[in-house]
Amino acid sequence: MWIEIICGLVIYKLVRRFFYDDEFSDVETSDSTALFSVAHRLEKLYGGKAYVGLRIPDADTASRQDIDVVLVTKGDVVVISVKNLSGIVTVTSDGSWVCEGGKHHTTETFPDPLAEVKKQASVLESYLEQRGVTLLEGNVSCKVVIPNPSFRTIHAFPSEVITYEDWQQLKPVSKSKISGWVKGAFSTGKEMQESSHQKLNFILGTAPTWDRSYISSLLTFNLKIV
Fold first, then answer.
1. What's the chain's Rg over C-alpha atoms?
2. Bridge-based pairing state of the strands 49-58 and 63-72
3. Dist CA 38 CA 41 (whole Å)
4. Of 176, 178, 156, whose CA–CA distance to 166 is shortest?
5. Beta partners for 72?
6. CB under 8 Å to 126, separation ≥6 — which residues?
7. Strand pairing partners for 161?
8. What CA–CA distance (Å, rounded) separates 109 from 92?
């Protein structure tokens, strides 16, 4: 029975890959699949390494700050919150998002996602500083990505919020240009840049995550067979 189920899933993935754009086809499934789809596409667009599901210790609250995705290219760090929202979203006066008619046909309220991801970036910077990597001011940027095609809103969002339409239009950036996502991070010299970049990747690669075996299994299933 399990063989039939696994074969069916593989065939389903291959059919979706053949008939649909694999960069967008999975975002309406689960939130975890959306995270890995976003991370995978960012690596294809900008190179570098995307770290998914980090749980960074927050010294101020004695707890851990969950971070969806951290994209690291050559000296560039982008902290990304992935909101796989479907339905109609309105923004309240305090910045909260109210989503109606989503997956479960209910009304859900989310704290201001942009304020949340900026807090996550601040916690990440402190964590890196404690481990010997200090990023220059302004070198860490924040984004909120909404990759779900069923997302609807009448609101105009700040440039840090990437709606589904914006997400579709993102294009690969040549090495000779600086993208709107990337600002150039470590600036003092080539030797410092390379050593800081290597250390940064090592720190994030060994940072606490959700569950490494769970993340590994999701990566294998969602990214390698499609």
1. 18
2. antiparallel
3. 5
4. 156
5. 49, 77
6. 59
7. 144
8. 10
